[in-house]
Amino acid sequence: MTTQTGLSQYEHVRRELGDILRRWDNRLRLRVIVYYLPYSFLPGLLIGLFIAIVSRMTPFMRAGDIGLVALIATILGVIGFVVAARLWPRPPLHAAQFFDLTFNTKEKISTALEILAGRIQAPPQIVERQLEDARDTAKAVPANAFLKIIARWQSWAGVGLLSFVLILLLLLPNPMEQELTAETVRAAGVEDAIDELRDLTELVASDTALSAEERDALLQELETTIEELREQGVSPEEAFAAISELQQQLEERAAAMQEQLQQQQQALESAADALAERQTRPQENAADSEDATAEEQPDEAEQTPEEQIAEAAEEMAQQADDMTQEQQRQSAEALEQAAQALQQSQPQIAQTLEQLADAIQQGDQQAAQQLSQQLQQQLQSSQNQQQQQQQSAQQLSDSAQQLQQQAQQIAQSNNQQQSGQNQQGDQQSRPQSSSGDTASQQDSDGQSGGQEGQGDQAGQNASDQSGGETGQSAENASESDQAGSSNSSEGTESAAAGSGDENQPNQTASSAGNAPPVQSNNPDGQGEAQYDPIYAPQAIDSASSDATVILEPDASDQPLQEGDFNENPLGQAAVPYNQVFADYSDAASRAIERGYVPLSLRDIVHDYFSSLAPDN
After folding, report:
1. HEC-encoded secondary structure of 93-152
2. Pure H helices in 467-561
3. Which of 222, 266, 492, 573 is geometrically suited to a Cys-Cys bond with 452, CB 3.0 to 4.6 A?
4. Do residues 313 and 335 lie in contact, with contact meaning Cβ atoms separated by under 8 Å?
């Protein structure tokens, strides 16, 4: 029996068999990679095809992004397969057993490995002969002949077909991409609007120029608008309406602040003018009037009203003891006039001016100087507050303009999305309507002469019935039928235009029952529809279907033909007013609800349609 120590002399056999097994294993792995490599492309291609198909049914992903995802998935699939095929663990004994079956070596190689591993015990003579035989057999095996590298062209053809279909789907125009782009732009606009509202919220919260009530109202409105924009699935119309409403409120608040500042400025200017008329009078009779006028005085045009008021009050306070009673009275009246001008906008300053007027009139110079200093502080504080209000109003106005831009961006993206949907609907309905248009053109070409004769006959009958109206009334009746789209035969000019130009989108029909599909002018202004003229004899009290009209007096220089216009002639009417009014009124209501109509015009549009409502 052999032992593990006795097998050490066969180490060179172990190394030789190991090298042979590694070469066979590498050949086998290469064969597997080449044979199954096409299948590693399938996951990435199928993922790309699935996303491309879904993106054509719903706005999900753009063509470039789909191609990038498919490419990355394909590369990862190929790399993962190659790495797995090359590094998948395979013990030497398992490989030897596989190759014994593949090469039909009668388990000589696997038996030799088991002997070298000590799993099989045998006498040294048998072990030596067994190992030598396994080594010679392994060297003689033509491994390349058994492990041929095979590439199946059918698999590669399938991969090429899937790749072609995917590339075709990516290159063909996708009607959903425009909607996806509009959705992305709209989402970006909503996010930008939310960021702008957050910044504005911080600004309003720290703005000391606003009163507590104004600040709380604006913060509440900002928070409400942000919550509306954050809602899942918010529609473009709702986002546009919320932003537009907030924009209008900001503009109104900024305008109110500007108006308040303007009123305060006008009041200060009035107070300054009232003091400017009186402040020089006490100096006119003073002994040092000549020296006072000789000193350099600052240019009043460069001074603010606050500075002019403070300077005038200071001069009056300093000269309170030197004034005569008349001058004190005049100065007090000037101060009271200034206080009256500031009573509404600056009540604290007005109260100080009244107190200063009392002190000057009483000749109390010390009290007047104290009140003058207090007035200067109040005026300085008022000036600083006005500057803060001016900045706040400007910031609110700028924020309103930015919100207007965001709202316009959302509206434009929504219009692009609706345009893409309309184009898609037109493309789907165009093949169905094209055959009808061709047939209508052929009918118009073949029957234009007959229609012209019918029109002349109708005109002749109408002339005979009216008695006073001849060829001119028949011609006008034909034109009236064309304008009203009635179910009578079309005029000769309309038929000739339809038969001469095959590219015209709207073709005239040979009869009311065979009208071609034309662009419809529905209340929403979208889509195509089959035009069916409606004959409504109840619109005109008539028992006959002959078409005649009432001719209005012509103000031009063309010669007129006299006729009998006393009686209401017989005629027909199409689409009564009271039947189509509801459609247009509903369209206007939907536009108002969805925010398409500006807030300032909604009442006008509503009142307009209310005034047009029929009586019945």
Report:
1. HHHHHHHHHHHCCCCHHHHHHHHHCCCCCCCHHHHHHHHHHHHHHHHHCCHHHHCCCCCC
2. 471-484, 492-500
3. 492
4. yes
Question: Distance (Å, rounded) from C-alpha 400 to C-alpha 225?
Answer: 13
d(CA 173, CA 39): 29
Provide the b/e sequence for 216-234 (b: ≥16 CB within 10 Å).
Answer: eebeebbeebbebbeeeee
pLDDT band at 39; cut points 50, 70, 90? very high
First to last CA, the chain: 120
Closest CA to 432 of 516, 362, 549, 550: 516
- 44 in Cβ contact with 71 (< 8 Å): yes
- Lookup result for tokens 């300085």: 380
Residue spans of the domains in the chain: they are 6-171, 177-281+306-424
What sign for the dihedral angle of Cα 162, 164, 170, 172? negative
Judge whether 574 and 557 are in contact, CB under 8 Å.
Answer: no
What is the per-residue pLDDT for 420?
57
**DSSP symbol at 535:** B
Q: Is the pTM of this model over 0.70?
A: no
Amino acid (one-letter) located at 480: S
* Averaged pLDDT, 210-233: 82
Nearest CA-CA partner of 485 in 519, 457, 453, 436: 519
Residue range 127-161, pLDDT digits in tens? 889 999 999 999 999 999 999 999 999 999 999 99
Token pair 């300093």 is found at 318
Angle at 255 between CA 250 and CA 260, to 5 degrees: 125
Exposed, middle or buried: residue 162 (CB in 10 Å: 0-12, 13-18, 19+)?
middle
Which residues share a beta bridge with 574?
A: 535
Contact 436, 500 (CB under 8 A): no
What phi and psi, each to the nearest 5 degrees, are found at residue 529?
-155, 160
